[in-house]
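Weekly puzzle thread! Below is a chain. First person to post its structure in token form gets bragging rights.
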Amino acid sequence: MIPTVKIGTRGSQLALWQANWVKSALSERHPGLQVELEIIKTKGDKILDVPLARVGGKGLFVKEIEEALLSRQIDIAVHSMKDMPAEIPEGLSVGAIPQRETPWDALVSRNDQPLASLPPGSRIGTSSLRRAAQLKHADPALKIEPLRGNLDTRLRKLHEQELAAVVLAAAGLQRLGLNRHVTEIMELDAMVPAVGQGALCIEVRDNDPRIGPLVAELDHPPTRTAVLAERAFLGRLEGGCQVPIAGYARLDGGQIVLTGLVASVNGRKMIRDEISGAPQAAAELGARLAERLLAGGADVLLQELRA
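Winning reply:
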């Protein structure tokens, strides 16, 4: 008999949706399994009046949950993969990466206007340096306004603060049934997404004989391969939310194709490249693409950003 399995999660509506999805998936495969959610507040949840880039530190939305996993307060941690630092604490591992939802960003505008139709000087809400840099690169006249909070809060602030638009992850809107708000999906040519965007990370303790096999059933190998390439790219650049870094990998015709980007905060400088190769070499390709960007000037950009 397997005792109750405890899933650690943040308390936002989206985080609870994700944790409940994992709970349902486990219960479907193992009828009678008792699965409970435990809500854990992270540093990123507590500090809501400061842009993420200024809060500092790694793992703003995962550290406290990982600590609970290490201390055996919980058995499984469910995160958004894009919140995961490049390095995972010793004793923990990614037990499964389920099939990815859409990786793209979505523009939600107050008057249902796409980005290209917004008036000069329009105010767009986002606290993501990655999104801000790519928006400013596309249109230097845009004004970026800091925007924190869960999805409902950010959608509400669109109107309360009279912003022209906000940019959000399309996956979160889709999971919460909020697609009706989307004005425009910003695919790869318009905006390279965050590393791991649209994917879930189910984190477990290393070599846990009880939990490891349960969680492994939820893994989606093509998604894992793509995310592995993206995270290897991020890891070589030592990136975090304080740096405008973007990366997206896809499987195409038996090859993995990885697009990577590093930008200045103001969007004036942007270094973007692409690499492809065998899926078995996903991590190596990620590191190679990072080296290529560093050699092309990303090293100077990153030094300036971290100074």
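Puzzle host: Confirmed. Bonus trivia for everyone else. The chain has three domains: 5-98+199-219, 105-186, 237-306.
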